[in-house]
Amino acid sequence: MLRETIVAARRVVVFTGAGISQESGLGTFRGPGGLWERFRPEDLATPEAFARDPALVGRWYAERFAAMRAAQPNAGHRAIARWEALFPSMVVVTQNIDRLHQRAGSRDVLELHGTLWLSRCARCGRQVPTDALPPADPPPPRCACGGLFRPGVVWFGEPLPAAVFARAERESAAADLFVVVGTSGSVWPAAGLVEVAARAGAAIVEVNREATPLSALATESLRGAAGEILPLLL
Ligand code: BJW
Ligand code: ZN
Predict the structure, then answer these.
(1) Which of 39, 100, 172, 214 could, after both became Cys, cross-link 197 (CB 3.0–4.6 A)?
(2) Ligand 1: which residues within 6 Å by Cβ?
(3) Has residue 110 got a pLDDT over 90?
């Protein structure tokens, strides 16, 4: 059944979250050992937190950027990249900011929550590669205009990049196979894409170590590690 669905698929969307990068050594947000167990999101991942304590927020992201640079794509990222050759249309929609999909070879990646590889001036909006900036410890580097550089990610309360999200919605509505990997499905509006795909009639395949609120929408739920299951699906 799953086999037939995959073989017949023409338009595929793979929707990913922090769980796919867990086997590359990057922390997830929620659950045991997750980043939010040690930190409160509102202390670090909001524009208010950055305004209140830019050095603290800057240091936290500098540490995570160092970990991301050192991390390597895993078997899950690589399997997804290889799917591009198998389907007429294949898009990766990711909530991740680590660029591991691109480094694994995926060419069409929609970054819903931005990327830590880019920084931008909080005052004038000028965008620069994060590794071109001096180390953020302390204080965060400043732009020529005097503003502070902030990570190029989407914080709570901020809008997602509109054109990127609009395309993600279109692709989700047009997909015949929608594969959800390693996300708790608890952050909106990203999580709503699964509903968009389900309502439009796509087969939903979930790959996760645990059940999530999205499992109810899934045609098929595969429980386990993405790095083990995704190469098998191939
Ligand atoms: C494995 C595995 C392995 C582990 N293999 N699986 C509607 C209802 C309620 C609230 C809202 C709503 N609409 C908006 C909101 C508010 C808010 C929100 O969603 N809040 C909820 C928490 C309730 N949303 C927003 O604020 C968004 N903006 C917005 O709505 O703007 C509106 C607006 C419009 C116009 C003007 C102004 C505003 C923005 C959300 C931004 C989220 N940002 C973050 C931080 C990014 C930067 C950073 O990294 O620091 O994005 S939060 C964090 O969560 C990060 C992630 O992308 C995101 C999702 O997490 P993810 O990927 O699902 O990770 P986990 O840890 O939750 O789950 C991992 C999963 O993997 C688990 O299920 C494991 O079991 C599994 N797993 N290892 C397979 N090896
Ligand atoms: Zn500036």
Answers:
(1) 172
(2) 17-19, 22-23, 28-31, 34, 45, 95, 97, 113, 153-159, 182-184, 186-189, 207-210, 212, 225-226
(3) yes
